[in-house]
């Protein structure tokens, strides 16, 4: 019987439990590394998807994610992390997860098979023309995710699909298909392992490329963060000192006056502006700090 790659059995899994613990872990790690390496072949596809994501983000569009099970959790992580890391506005982000928030603790698999729920959740998401939906499914056949994609296509939303099996419905139905040719899992079908690692890497690559283009990441720093806790305030202070060569106290004072908005504080120090004038200057440059450095 020919199985999809994500369901096939890795030959190295035979007798795995009889091997020394360190050898078992080495094999598991090697398979993870091979899965990550498979992402390299998808770089052109990731670039094309990132261009659409950049266009939507720059024009005020929304970014949505759809998924179920472990693939949905990978998508959820990306959705939740982008506001804190790169300053993406939370009200322009949404996640469509099979079974909803209440399914995050139980991860009941039955919700994955509900195409109508995917259609319904997209309809309630607020996504439409000019927005982007990123759909993640290791198998490429998850019916909930396909339902969301079908609804998105009808609404004029750009769709990006990430899957680990070729020639699957998801890869055929999305605007931009990202195929991650990961090897079989060391535990057959356990796509939270190599497949999920490759999915996370692809999502990281895509969002970081967009952040660079938007000027949210400059000279290796996440300059669009809002310093709202001790760790981030200390990080913002270090970034300010690095970008403006100011003293620690000047960095702290600027951050306080800017209400923790790092880009505003940078311009205040670089151009000797007050917070309102710095905010205006940023707005005129689409929030991109790079041209001022």
Q: How does this model look, in words?
A:
The chain is an alpha/beta fold and 293 residues long. The protein contains eleven helices and seven strands. Strands 2-1-3-4-5 form a five-stranded parallel beta sheet, with helices on both faces. The chain has a two-stranded antiparallel ribbon with strand order 6-7.
Summary, kept brief:
This protein has 293 residues and is α/β, with parallel strands linked by helices. The chain has helices spanning 21-38, 43-58, 69-86, 115-123, 143-155, 169-173, 194-214, 230-244, 248-257, 262-271, 275-284, and strands at residues 63-67, 93-97, 132-136, 158-163, 176-179, 217-218, 221-222. It is 49% helix and 10% strand.
- Sequence of strands across the biggest β-sheet: 2-1-3-4-5
Poorly predicted residue ranges: none
DSSP strand tally? 7
The major beta sheet can be summarized as: 5 strands, parallel
What coarse outline follows from CA principal-axis ratios?
Answer: globular
Mean pLDDT: 91
Order of helices and strands: HHEHEHEHEHEHEEHHHH
Structural category is alpha/beta
The count of helical stretches stands at 11
Helical content band: 40-55%
- The amount of beta strand, in percent, is 5-15%
Distance between the termini: 60 Å
Oligomer: single chain
**Gyration radius, rounded:** 21 Å
